[in-house]
Amino acid sequence: MSTSYTVDVIAGDGIGPEVVPAAIACVDRLAELHGFAVDWRERDWGSEHHRRHGAMMPEDGLEQLRTGDAIFLGAVGAPDIPDHVTLWGLLIPIRRAFRQYVNLRPVKSLPGRPGPELDMLIVRENVEGEYSEIGGRYGQGTPDEAAIQEAVFTRRGIERVTRFAAERALERSGTIVSATKSNGIIHTMPFWDEVVAEVAADAGVRVDSVLIDALAARFVLAPASIDVVVASNLFGDILSDLGAAIAGSIGIAPSANLNPEREFPSLFEPVHGSAPDIAGRGVANPFAAIWSAAMMLEHLGETDAAAALERACFGALADGVATADLGGEATTAEFTQAVLGRLSDM
Ligand code: ATP
Ligand code: MG
Fold it and tell me: If 90 and its partner were Cys, which of 30, 56, 272, 285 is the partner (CB 3.0–4.6 Å)?
């Protein structure tokens, strides 16, 4: 009897419904080749759900997802709905409810692109830090108006994300780069530095603690000198978009929102958004979605299939098939066909 996985699919908005079928087609092909099965449960959640029902997902949405093995998401967001509504109405509740405290974002250079070879792993803390509800707006309408936003860092939160990064580094360079700002942010960041150093020493990896401003410059000037990065929620978010940009395009960057203990489903999604400017034209790059699906297969334990999918994706590019964001002329469907073709030839 073959293994069967249940995956909840939230294709979402904009180019989400264009790139998600590409990823599903690749996984289905691999399922045939590697002898496993995937039951895709499609969820029509997102902006249209919000327009109709006043919420991004049903009230019992989290309960519905809880019974699956993984969640695959395209993109959520639309020009008529504020960004914070989409984020706090869907992604953040899922990350928190399912204890997805690691946001893993690999960055690799693309075949044929000029510049140094890149192979980074950005480990972003995903459930606490600067993204917090604590704070408020005060004295509205007066000249003394102010806003206060608290950041929440816990020892447990810093320890577990650093441990994850350290374990990855042990299989790689043995060093983690930690993003900090302890010269300007005098409570949370010194605490972050202290706990990161403790966990790293315990795990037997070196820490290179770098101020976020200097680290951003290093990403641009010497990205090949960086291996595993561990960063808070906000810093990690910024660094991973920067990483995607220096690798070539936001259209290639994948991400995994992981619950490493596997108590709950993890969520896999391309880093890019709904890209309303190119939606509906069939030209979106499905690379990020397909690579995210490879990360999902790896997490589910289908490591051979995951490696084959990543190879096929990079291989299609090496063959010269590329979408417009990478300077090519291929459509979403053409790039997907190239990947499927490589999978069948393996
Ligand atoms: P959101 O609010 O949903 O995050 P956004 O407009 O802030 O949307 P993206 O949707 O990521 O951010 O789009 C940023 C730019 O990158 C846009 O010009 C978009 O067309 C382009 N882009 C994003 N994803 C892709 C993709 N998969 N293929 C090609 N171009 C893309
Ligand atoms: Mg955006």
Answer: 56
Max Cα separation, the chain?
70
The pLDDT score that the predictor gives to residue 248 is 80
Domain count, the chain: 2
**What is the ipTM metric for this complex?**
0.94
Q: What share of the chain in percent tops pLDDT 90?
A: 90
> What is the CB < 6 Å shell around ligand 1?
15, 19, 75, 77, 83, 250-251, 272-275, 277-278, 284-285, 288, 325
Indicate which residue's Cα is closest to atom 19 of ligand 1.
275
Same domain, 105 and 253: yes
Which pLDDT belongs to residue 1? 56
Give Cβ neighbours of residue 221 (< 8 Å, ≥ 6 apart).
none
Q: Catalytic: which of 241, 304, 325, 345?
A: 241
CA 232 vs CA 103, 159, 166, 188, 259: distances in Å: 10, 12, 15, 10, 16
- Residue 88 and residue 30 share a domain: yes
239-256 pLDDT, tens digit per residue, is 988 998 888 888 999 999
Task: Decide if 237 is catalytic.
Answer: yes
Ligand 1: centre distance to CA 249 (Å): 10
- Identify whether residues 182 and 152 lie together within a single domain: yes
The answer on 273 and 165 residing in a single domain is: no
CA of residue 242 to ligand 2 center, whole Å:
13
Which of 194, 213, 247 is the endpoint of a domain?
247
181 in active site: yes
Cα distances (angstroms) measured from residue 91 to each of 100, 151, 185, 213, 326:
11, 19, 27, 27, 28
Closest among 228, 270, 230 to 124, alpha carbons compared: 230
Q: What is the pTM of this model?
A: 0.93
| pLDDT tens digits along 189-199 | 999 999 999 99
Average pLDDT, the chain: 95
Give the alpha-carbon dihedral of 314, 316, 322, 327, to 10 degrees: 50
- pLDDT for 117 equals 84
φ and ψ at 221, to 5 degrees? -90, -35
131 catalytic residue (yes or no): yes
103 and 122, same structural domain?
no
Say how far apart CA 279 and CA 294 lie, in whole Å. Answer: 24
